[in-house]
Structures are given as structure tokens and as C-alpha cells.
Amino acid sequence: MADFSRSLDLSGASNFRDLGGYASQDGRLVRWRRIFRSDHLASLTPQDRQLLAGLGVARAVDFRGQAESAALSYELPHVRYQALPIEPIVVQRAKEMALAGQPMTAPTAVRLMQDTYRAFVSDNTSQFASLFEQLLLEDTPLVFHCTAGKDRTGFAAALVLLALGVSREVVMQDYLLTNGLYRRPAGLVSSAPEEVLNVIWRVQAEFLQAALQAVDHDHGGVQRYLKHRLGMHEAATKRLAELYLQPHAA
């Protein structure tokens, strides 16, 4: 059996990793080297690009907002690019608070992050539905990402794994891997205290839980949310499993 590593050692992206190998409820494993999640791809080195080409990555889905993607644009040879912009609410709210003279504290930052995740559920269904449409088109290797690969990307990864039947416990474990992998941008200048930056540039279980609680409370659970808001009806869910879960052993 091949020994696959989940996190890939790239110089220009610190949070690039494989969603393969996780077990679904029926015992099948998510296929390796088909679905990747990452921070932004604008700083990849030539060696990084060569590694991605070797993996056969053919599709990139970008959740960054318009200003983010314009500031750090990229183009990868032989990779089809699709922008599904989700504007960064936390950044905007933080700016508004600063202009109003309101101090940003760690507890306030946590609440802002939780509000952001709830907004993913209510306000960004079209973007996440489009991700599933891409996944269902074919099984050529695909990477989806935002700027840090932790919030918009983290919720997207949770939806994909849950749709494939992976348990919430394992989904949360994958989500929290960001804290051991993601490197904050070098030379980042901010007037915010370090305790606030540690909230904004890291992930907490409470963030993803806020989104999943909204899914449960407002939409009747993950399966109903996937079906009624993201278009993942029974046939689509079955097709997703056919494409991205290993077949049962004979």
C-alpha cells in the first residue's frame, strides 16, 4: 500500500494538504491525491509548481475576495482556474471597529470569527454549491483555497468530507491541522495585539462548531443542508462517493 503524506512540503504554501485517507461511515477511504486544500498559490516556487504538476493538479478553485486575488494573482500551466469569491468579513469588520475607535480584543475577535462562519452557511451557498459542481464534473485532481487556507477553505473541506460520510470528529481533526501547518505571512505589520492575531491567524474548534450549529439549527442537519441548499441530492451524493471514495475491497 502506498505511503501517502497528508501535508505536502511546499516552499511557497504552508497549508497545502491532501483530503485523502479519511474513512467514511461505510468503511471506504477517501481517495488520495484527488482533492487538496491550501492557502493561496501565488508564492509557489518553480519546484512547488513542478510538484503540483507531478500530482496532476488540473483544477484550482479560489475562494479569495476580489481585492485579495487581484493583489496576489497567479496562473499555473495546465491548471484550470475558477474564482468563487467570498469577501473576508473579519477584515472589513475589524477596519470598521478601528475607524470607530473600538478596541479589538481576543474575545471580540472570536465572536467575529464565529459570525463569519455562520455567514458561510447563510450567505455563501452559491460558492460552495459551485465547488461541488466542479467536483462532480470529473475526478482530475483539484485544489481549493483562500488566502490562509483555514476559514473559507476550512468550511469547504468540512462540507466535502461530511458529504463523503466522514465523521464530524475526524472533520474537526482535519480542520485543526491548520494550527500546526500554516505560517503567518512574514513581515506582517499590524497594530493589533498578539492575542488578537493569534485568533485571526489560527483556527479554533468553536469557529467550525458555530457553522455546523447553524447548519443543524437553521437547516435541519448536514444532509438536508447539502441537499436543499447545495444541490447535493441523492444521485449527486452517490456520484461524489463513486468519484472520491475507494471501492470496497473484494
TrEMBL record:
One MF annotation (Gene Ontology) recorded for this entry: protein tyrosine phosphatase activity
Top EC group: hydrolase
EC number of this enzyme: 3.1.3.48
A Pfam family reported for this protein in Swiss-Prot or TrEMBL: Y_phosphatase3
Domain of life: Bacteria
Taxonomic lineage of the native organism: Bacteria, Pseudomonadati, Pseudomonadota, Betaproteobacteria, Burkholderiales
All residue ranges annotated as the Tyrosine specific protein phosphatases domain in the record: 126-196
Family membership: Belongs to the protein-tyrosine phosphatase family.
Keyword tags: Hydrolase
The protein's name in its UniProt record: Tyrosine-protein phosphatase
